[in-house]
TrEMBL record, chain A:
It comes from Cyprinus carpio (Common carp). Keywords: Membrane, Signal-anchor, Transmembrane, Transmembrane helix. Signal peptide: none annotated. The keyword Ribosomal protein does not apply. The lineage of its organism: Eukaryota, Metazoa, Chordata, Craniata, Vertebrata. This is C1GALT1-specific chaperone 1-like. It is found in: Membrane. It is a single-pass type II membrane protein. Its main location: membrane.
TrEMBL record, chain B:
Homodimer; disulfide-linked. GO terms for molecular function: glycoprotein-N-acetylgalactosamine 3-beta-galactosyltransferase activity; manganese ion binding; nucleotide binding. It comes from the Eukaryota. It comes from Cyprinus carpio carpio. This is Glycoprotein-N-acetylgalactosamine 3-beta-galactosyltransferase 1. Belongs to the glycosyltransferase 31 family. Beta3-Gal-T subfamily.
Length: 317, 321
């Protein structure tokens, strides 16, 4: 009996080893989907609610104090109305907001870069911001035609280390190059800024004045310079994968959603934690300001883990 | 024979082991995705992280019946967007039209047209009085292009007694001595006000003497001694709005009253001080704007932002910086 039993056992052992080996090879094969890994690398999401709940009060308040944003708003006198609107609305929520202009305006304050070329102007602004950063470690570059919800930007980068290179926004492709779209805002960490200042010295890879015959948009020039510094574009998304950076207006996005998802217009449209919207008129921006910072239903409490205080001396938020 | 038996046992050992291992692995694999699936399920649950207890309590204590004045041609272009957004937040919602339908709409004994609006209002309130008087505490009338925030309406009404003859809305001064409430911005009647409106027509004290429904109702309210309430918030900012938000919120230089503010009973404020954070209604809202306001009110949220206006706190909020 024993002798027969041992045959059975030998059979079991052999069968078990066979199965283990087969499944080991299976997982090994599915693991070599490097495409999947690269894909994951370019999507950047905020810290999860579970993670936040694990933090202590003091860690939470440390993070709230550390995530401070320097806004670079690139204006021109042609965009005076949007300049004034940005000045009166969302830019007040940046820890520091500086308007950089191509030429000065008597009506509004700005750092006059005296530069008509957009790429040269952006470079100068970046240099100025880096030199005047103080203890601010996150930088947000936008035109005044973009509306930004800085609190949601802070939430996105809350658990990210600004001494690491980050270059975040809505990503698009230009050939093989991934770049962040200018119109929906560009987020740069302190380390990225530092690397940019360095690579700006490299006249071959990151020239200030390109070929006069054709102009490459600043957003791709920026991406190219960053690529040479080892910094790559990442798409900012919420936990469900919805893009947080939008170059379209809210009504345009809602309208699209009504066509594509008539049964679930708002849920399918835009993230609750959206950071930017573009292409909005000055009155739409004022309504958006009210819609974001004031209009709400009594009794709904979001139970957010952090608190951001409203800015001083402001009456529309 | 013996070695044959041994071989059989050996083979069956392999088979059993393979079957057992496969089953084990299968169970493990299906367990992992279902944890992930549970995760993604909870993260896509609507308003999953919000606490709505305060709002839910109010909806049980302050029951609102909403009736939306609409017509068959508007069901697809307008009314369906109300049904998809704020309509479902009413304790009861009735879509009143000249024809009954599966929308569902209630068919009133009227025809369509601007000159029929006051008949619609009269018939609608008579219908509600007959069928729903005890189903709600307050009775809201809205147009099919009005956006309403029910939670803020309930909050405003919670301090008032529905057995008193009261009506709330955006107060206009002309045409009626005590004034009247704008129809487009929506107005809400207490239970006693509803009883008196219906009684007024039953007793011949009120009659269909105009086509303009908000003026007509306002006159009847005056006749039946129903009081006009003040719907402004504690800072004096308006909650009911007869026009879309951009009419009011856009900053203006000091100027004489524009045409759309000429009827105002309370001194109108232009710019951000126009409108309460806890706004109740906006009017002339098209389908896209309806969903946009829904997104602004119930979804888009600045993470962690501490609102300036907290009406339940005792201190003066303006100085809370």
């Amino acid at each position: 009996m024993m002798y027969e039993g041992s045959s059975f056992m030998k059979g079991m052992i052999l069968g078990g080893i066979f199965c283990l080996v087969v499944s080991f090879f299976e997982t090994f094969n599915s693991g070599t989907h490097s495409e999947g890994h690269e894909h994951l690398h370019h999507h950047l999401k905020p810290v999860s609610k579970d993670e936040l709940e694990k933090l202590s009060e003091s860690q939470m308040s440390d993070w709230t104090l550390q995530v401070r944003v320097y806004c670079l708003i690139m204006v021109t006198p042609k965009l005076l109305v949007h300049w004034a609107t940005a000045n009166d609305t969302w830019s007040k929520h940046c820890d520091k907001s500086v308007f950089y202009t191509s030429e000065s305006s008597k009506v509004l304050e700005a750092v006059d870069l005296q530069e008509q070329d957009e790429w040269a102007r952006l470079r100068k602004a970046i240099r100025h911001a880096y030199e005047n950063a103080g203890d601010l470690r996150w930088f947000f570059v936008a035109r005044p035609t973009t509306f930004a919800i800085i609190e949601n930007l802070k939430y996105l980068v809350l658990d990210k280390d600004p001494s690491q290179p980050f270059y975040i926004g809505h990503t698009e492709k230009s050939g093989e190059l991934d770049y962040v779209e200018y119109d929906s805002g560009i987020v740069l960490s302190y380390e990225t800024m530092r690397r940019l200042i360095e690579i700006f010295k490299d006249v071959d890879r990151c020239p200030e004045r390109g070929n006069a015959l054709w102009k490459t948009p600043e957003e791709t020039q920026l991406a190219t310079c960053l690529k040479y510094s080892g910094v790559f574009a990442e798409n900012g998304e919420d936990a469900q994968g919805k893009g947080l950076f939008n170059k379209k207006s809210v009504s345009s996005l809602i309208s699209d959603s009504m066509g594509q998802n008539p049964a679930d217009v708002v849920e399918a449209c835009c993230s609750d934690m959206a950071i930017t919207f573009g292409g909005m008129s000055q009155s739409q921006i004022q309504v958006l300001m009210y819609g974001v910072y004031r209009l709400r239903p009594y009794g709904h409490d979001f139970h957010d883990s952090l608190t951001f205080l409203p800015p001083k001396d402001s009456d529309n938020d | 024979m013996r070695s044959f038996k041994r071989h059989i046992l050996f083979l069956s050992g392999i088979v059993v082991s393979v079957l057992l291992s496969k089953t084990c692995l299968l169970v493990l694999r299906t367990l992992t995705p279902s944890f992930a699936m549970t995760d993604s399920y909870t993260s896509t649950v609507r308003h999953g992280v919000k606490n709505r207890t305060a709002a839910l309590d109010l909806s049980q204590k302050v029951r609102v019946l909403c009736w939306v004045m609409t017509q068959p041609q508007h069901l697809k272009s307008r009314t369906q967007h109300i049904r998809a957004t704020w309509g479902r937040r009413c304790n009861i919602v009735l879509y009143m039209s000249s024809e009954a339908s599966d929308f569902p709409t209630v068919g009133l004994n009227v025809s369509e047209g601007r000159n029929q609006l006051y008949w619609k209002t009269i018939r609608a309130f008579q219908h509600i009085h007959m069928h729903h008087l005890d189903d709600a505490d307050w009775f809201l009338k809205a147009d099919d292009d009005t956006f309403v925030v029910l939670e803020n309406l309930r909050y405003g009404l919670s301090k008032h007694n529905t057995e008193e003859p009261l009506y709330f809305g955006r107060r206009f001064k002309p045409f009626v001595a005590q004034g009247y409430m704008s129809g487009g911005a929506g107005y809400v009647l207490s239970k006693e006000a509803l009883r008196r409106f219906v009684k007024g027509f039953a007793d011949g004290l009120c009659s269909h003497d105009t086509n303009i429904e908000d003026i007509g109702l306002g006159k009847c309210m005056e006749t039946m001694k129903v009081q006009l309430g003040d719907s402004r918030d504690v800072l004096g900012r308006q909650t009911f709005h007869p026009y879309p938000p951009h009419y009011y919120l856009t900053r203006q230089l000091p100027r004489p009253r524009p045409w759309y503010l000429l009827y105002e009973h309370y001194h109108p404020v232009e710019g951000p001080g126009c409108c309460s954070d806890l706004a109740i209604s906006f009017h002339y809202i098209d389908a896209v704007q309806m969903h946009t306001l829904e997104y602004y009110t119930y979804h888009l949220h600045p993470y962690g932002y501490k609102y300036r206006f907290n009406p339940d706190e005792r201190s003066d909020n303006r100085n809370n910086n």
